[in-house]
Every structure is written in C-alpha cells, then in structure tokens.
Amino acid sequence: MSELRRDPISGRWNIIDTTQPVGPEGFEVEPPMQSAGKCPFCYGNEAMTPREIYAVRPQGGPPTGPGWNLRVVPNKFPALQIEGDLGRRGLGVFDLCNGVGAHEVIIETPEHDRQFADLSVPQVAEVIRAYIARSLDLRGDRRLRYTLLFKNYGLSAGATLEHAHSQLIALPIVPKRVQEELQGAGRYFDFRERCSYCDVLHQELQEDERVVCENRSFVAYCPYVSSFPFETWILPREHRGDFAKITPDTVTDFARILKETLGRLRTVLGNPPYNFVIHTAPIEPREREEYHWHVELIPKLTKIAGFEWGTGFYINPTPPELAAKHLREAAWVPAAV
Fold first, then answer.
1. Residue 112 designated active-site
2. Cα 113 to the center of its chain, rounded Å
3. How sure is the predictor about 334, in pLDDT bands with cuts at 50, 70 and 90?
4. Among 149, 151, 165, which Cα is nearest to 246's?
5. Strand (E) or helix (H) holding 6
6. What predicted TM-score, i.e. pTM, was given to this entire model?
7. pLDDT band at 335 (very low <50, low <70, confident <90, very high)
8. Active site residue: 165, 292, 294, 326, which one?
9. Which CATH superfamily is domain 35-329 in?
10. Rounded distance, CA 15 to CA 171, Å?
11. Domain definitions of the chain by residue range
12. Which of 258, 259, 263, 262 is nearest to 278 (CA)?
C-alpha cells in the first residue's frame, strides 16, 4: 500500500509509492538541448546581450568584450522591468500593480559545452558570490520585497538556451509559496521555540536514511515528503534565514555540495533536466529567526496532471529513501578543491 506523508512545515500531503517504487531505470530522460544559431552567451558575442551589470574579469577589459569568467546581464526579454513606479491599485475585488522588478541572467561560464556540474569548485563559488552580490545590490531598491534565484536546465525544465546560466528575479511582492513556508515555520517556532528546518535536519542526520552527501557546512538529502522523484534539498547546518548573508568561509562548502549533488543526479539519472531554486527569507530589516534558507533541486522526471492540480497533492513514484540510496551509492570522485 502507498503512504500519505505530511510535511510538518507546509502541512502539504503527498502520496509516496512504497509498493512498486520506480528506480532510476524507470524514467526516460529527454536528450540534451541543441543550440540553433549563434549563442549570445559565448565568448565574442557579448554585444548580443544587454550591457553587463556585474562580471568577473581577471585581466580587466571592456564590458562588451571577452576576457571574462562570469557575466551578469539584464534579461533581454524580462518578466519584469526595473523602470517605473509600482502604481498599486484596485480594480473592484482585484489587486494589481505595474510589472516592476528586476530580471537578470547569470552567465556561469564562457564555455558553451560545460554544464554547471562540470565547473570547478572555485568556478561554482564565483557563481554563488555573484548571486550574493546581485541580491545585496538590489536591496537598495525599496520597491522590491523578494529576490528569487533559480536555474532551469533542459527544455522541459524551462530553459531556452543550452549555454550554462541561471536567473535572478526580484519582485515587489513576497510570493505565496514563500509566505506559506514562513507561516508554517512561524507556527512551529511559536509552539516549540525551535526552527522547524533545524529539527528536520537533525532528524535526517540521526536517521541517516535519506542523506545523500554532506560536508562541514551543508547537508544534501531527499526529503521525507518529497513531491517529485529524486527531489533533493540542500540545507546549511548553521541556522540562517537569509541566503545573501552566508559567510565567506562557507561559500566554498556550498559550491562543493551543490556541484556534488548535481554530479550524483547526473550519474544516476543520465543527465536529466532539472530546476533548482534558492529559498530565502524576504527582503526585510528584521532577521527571520523562524526561517532557514535552503535549496530545492528537482529533476524533471514526471508530469503534473489533473490530480495534482485538483488537490495540491503530488504522487511520487520513488520513495526518497530509495532515491537517496541510489544517489549515495553513485560513483563519485570528490573535487580536490
């Protein structure tokens, strides 16, 4: 019989198939994307993107030329525009405002054929430092309330270009999903005077059944109430609500475990499309002591259908215990740096 499992923070229920679990061999992975035409993110094509707003250029050089290791540029087709006033207003029972915000692209490497998992630990750390720098810079804009950092890899995960990149969207509102996490974590904190995520992490380490890998600062595990097969979360051991306030000495540890987790998923599943999202506290003057920033990494192996849309439940054909076992046992050579 399958199991209904309830998440202690969000209150969401999921169905986990424990009777006929599906292993890695049970999923068909789409072939890698193939570029059509000139890639705007490659060396020599800098003029094809909007003017860069952040870059790592060890030898210097103009923002319209090569010589860079990483670039951040405004999205050429932004979901939100940085210019303008919010113009909050009502329309009968509806609320609306102008589409003001920031939409940026982090071009992670000048090398077209290198995936995120192929980057060295120092290169991944450069990407993370770019995330932090851009997040902190945008906090000077008082119109913005939340910064979302995410990566889409593969066509079915929403990527439109093959070249390795991630995105930042800063919003004038706090997303509903984040509000639900904050409310759930707040209820738990009010009742127990402890962080719910810290408690979950402590239990995962104690049971050691769903842990994928760990280092001195971070733990990667498949959550007990996984919504999707091989869904993997990365949590910092240190309690902190705001990703952008991660300490410099833990950036390398974060780079190392992010690279390793993606490498293990690729080894086990055969280069699947995926999304990863950094969940962090809203842009606020006060520290959210009840919240704990984390990464949610979701391979795109199943489709959302009528049951999921109708109930908010997800049916996961791969128990997280089985997923973690496969990922843990995957052949993996730790990075030297």
1. no
2. 21
3. low
4. 149
5. strand 3-6
6. 0.94
7. low
8. 165
9. HIT-like (3.30.428.10)
10. 32
11. 35-329
12. 258
